[in-house]
Amino acid sequence: MSLFRFLGLGESPEKDQDAGDTESVRRIAAKLERLDPGRAKYLAAFAYVLARVANADLEIDADETAEMERSLAAISDLSESEIALAIEIAKSQARLLGGTENYVVTREYRKISTLEQRGQLLQCLYAVAAANGTITSVESSELVGIAEELGFTRMEANALRSQYRDKLSVLQTGN
User: Fold this and answer.
1) CATH says 21-171 is which class?
2) Which phi and psi angles does 45 have, rounded to 5°?
3) Is residue 86 within 8 Å of residue 50, measured between CB atoms?
């Protein structure tokens, strides 16, 4: 991707409608071609943000992947194969482009979702982080950052975090 394209310079007017899209969202949404483009974009961003938290510690394990698939299945009518494909692409994109697209995709998700949907995503993010039994300090920090990017106050995020207190590595004995 060129710097000019990234900054939105020199784009044609029809490209302006996709100004909030990122390569990650476009790639995942393209695989969900049977859906309305707006719905595909929403699900793509949701899947990407799930992968973002799973990849926070630079390792996405099978338990996290399974929880990501359950989370996407709960909010969509995608087939199992579409869910698996969307999650695999999201994981790949998060690993490949995470540093450059994490904030942009999360900010775009905030724009295209309701407060209720953002709350649902945050709950799913905690479930993904806790899927392997422990929320590492890196994952916890990423969750706090995502919550803020989604527009939640620290108090609101901490209320949800308290439900996962026993999974926080800093509070587990022997760690």
Assistant:
1) mainly alpha
2) -65, -40
3) no
What does the domain layout of the chain look like in residue ranges? 21-171
Query: Structure pTM?
Result: 0.81
Tokens 């709950």 — which residue?
123
How far is it, in rounded angstroms, from Cα 16 to Cα 53? 29
| Residues 85-135: tens digit of each pLDDT | 999 999 999 998 878 889 999 999 999 999 999 999 999 999 999 999 999
Q: What is the pLDDT of residues 55-92, one digit of tens each?
A: 999 999 999 999 999 999 999 999 999 999 999 999 99
d(CA 142, CA 165): 16
- Rounded to whole angstroms, the Cα distance separating 59 from 135 reads 12
From the CB of residue 149, how many other CB atoms can be counted at a distance below 10 Å?
Answer: 18
Q: Report the pLDDT averaged over residues 11-36.
A: 67
167 by Cβ neighbours in 10 Å (0-12 / 13-18 / 19+) ranks as buried
**Angle subtended by helix axes 154-161 and 115-130, to nearest 10:** 40
- List C-alpha distances in Å: 152 to 115, 130, 141, 155, 164: 9, 20, 14, 8, 17
DSSP label at residue 35: S
Q: Which residues are 168's β-sheet partners?
A: 135
Contact 171, 165 (CB under 8 A): yes
